[in-house]
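Query structure, 205 tokens:
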């Protein structure tokens, strides 16, 4: 097993659960919110600060400025003057690469597929689902009424989409941005996991 699996996901699609089951099947590390703790430790930011800006876009993002700063390292005056949201993104970006360099793993969200675009052992997945199924899953998970779950679903997807589209050169949820897009409503969680396992096995041949 040499593959790094990245998972983009719609809210309520079961993306995290699928990622956990894949990691367990292959016996490899799993990172979702776990990545935030790691980024906090390695960047010096407090974890609350990392969480506050986690997968949230900023309206003033200057893409070229940030990527130029990333290329030249953190010891530039540009980085010092950069808004905190940009610094948090770069801290996560760095952490994703460090995690990937340690070996195969599953990483959920955080533009991981984009951060690892130069790696040839990455399988990029996107998990989506039917609105009704996703709403039910959110209702059960967070003990919400249907309207609350629907609002959460829509707001979370909008937030993730804006974040991904800001910080990457690709479009969130668009098929061409990923290697494999799967409707978890069609197959269910376990069969989706089985399908991805087969895809990983073929990918590694």
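Result returned for the query:
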């Amino acid at each position: 097993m040499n593959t790094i699996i990245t998972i983009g996901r719609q809210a309520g699609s079961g993306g995290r659960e699928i990622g956990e089951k894949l990691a367990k099947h292959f016996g490899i590390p799993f990172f979702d919110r776990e990545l935030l703790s790691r980024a906090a430790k390695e960047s010096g930011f407090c974890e609350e600060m990392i969480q506050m800006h986690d997968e949230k876009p900023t309206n003033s993002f200057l893409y070229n400025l940030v990527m130029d700063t990333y290329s030249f390292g953190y010891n530039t005056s540009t980085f010092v003057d950069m808004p905190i949201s940009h610094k948090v993104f770069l801290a996560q970006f760095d952490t994703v690469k460090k995690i990937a360099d340690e070996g195969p793993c599953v990483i959920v969200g955080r533009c991981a597929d984009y951060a690892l675009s130069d790696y040839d052992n990455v399988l990029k997945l996107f998990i989506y689902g039917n609105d009704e199924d996703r709403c039910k899953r959110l209702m059960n998970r967070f003990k919400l009424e249907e309207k609350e779950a629907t609002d959460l679903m829509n707001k979370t997807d909008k937030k993730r989409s804006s974040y991904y589209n800001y910080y990457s050169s690709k479009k969130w949820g668009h098929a061409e941005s990923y290697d494999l897009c799967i409707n978890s409503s069609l197959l269910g969680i376990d069969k989706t996991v089985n399908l991805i396992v087969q895809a990983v096995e073929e990918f590694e041949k």
